[in-house]
Design brief:
Blueprint lengths: L13 E5 L4 E6 L4 E6 L6 E7 L9 H8 L9 E3 L5 E8 L13 H7 L10 H11 L14 E3 L22 E7 L3 E7 L15 E6 L4
Antiparallel strand pairs: 1-10, 2-9, 3-8, 3-10, 4-7, 4-9, 5-6, 6-8
The structure holds zinc ion.
Zinc ion (ZN) binds next to loops.
InterPro entries: DUF1989, UAAP2
Protein name: Urea carboxylase-associated protein 1
Pfam families: DUF1989
């Protein structure tokens, strides 16, 4: 569902650019609204969310899909935790649909899906592991790297129930915006994948804007 934001980008309290192949990890407090912008189009932002006070509570694709009765995420979707609490809600979306079924790329899946020689190519799982290693203050470890959301990524379900990775439905400047319902840790890998069309074979930066009402 296409829904425009009520916020003005110029009034954001915080603004970050995340290059493809890089990670982003920050605390986002309850009540804050934040936006991911697909700056150049057809980019996948592989994202995990945690309860900042209790990171064992984390985003759950199964709870989210079951409760909303739909496999795609868009404006109005409530993103739920493995304790079935609403962690955040998508409040605006100019892309229209986001994937939470396809999972993140890893060096292992690259070798299985594409070629053994892809093993040394950079992958989202590596970026997440680097993020938690370089930021011990978030108290995350390997077991916390779990099922994610692929913002802007197009993974349609076929009539036979299959999953396909298709060329993007996003475009330059499209965005998705969420409101935090609890204090969150947000962990993004801006996907470096070159072997399927999730990034249009050309990984590009995204932007993160935060409107924190406490400021
Ligand atoms: Zn990836």
């Amino acid at each position: 569902m296409i829904k425009e934001s009520q916020f003005d980008a110029h009034n954001a309290n915080q603004k970050y650019t995340v290059d493809s192949g890089d990670y982003f990890i920050r605390y986002i407090p309850a009540g804050a609204t934040f936006r991911f912008v697909d700056l150049e189009g057809n980019q996948a932002a592989d994202t995990l969310f945690y309860n900042a006070h209790h990171p064992a509570e984390r985003y759950s694709a199964t709870d989210t899909i079951r409760e909303q009765g739909n496999v795609y995420l868009t404006a109005g979707s409530q993103l739920r935790s493995n304790e079935n609490q609403v962690m955040l809600e998508i409040v605006a979306d100019t892309c229209g649909r986001h994937d939470t079924l396809g999972g993140a790329c890893a060096t292992e899946s690259n070798t299985v899906r594409y070629d053994l020689e892809k093993r040394c190519m950079h992958a989202c799982r590596d970026s997440w592991m680097l993020a938690i290693a370089e930021h011990p203050e978030f108290d995350l470890d390997k077991r916390d790297i779990s099922h994610n959301i692929n913002f802007f990524m197009n993974v349609p379900v076929t009539s036979a129930g299959g999953l396909t990775f298709e060329d993007g439905i996003s475009a330059p400047g499209k965005y998705v915006e969420m409101k935090a319902h609890m204090d969150l840790i947000v962990l993004i890998s801006n996907c470096p994948q070159l072997n399927n069309p999730c990034n249009g074979y050309n990984p590009t930066p995204i932007e993160v804007l935060v409107w924190d009402t406490h400021h």
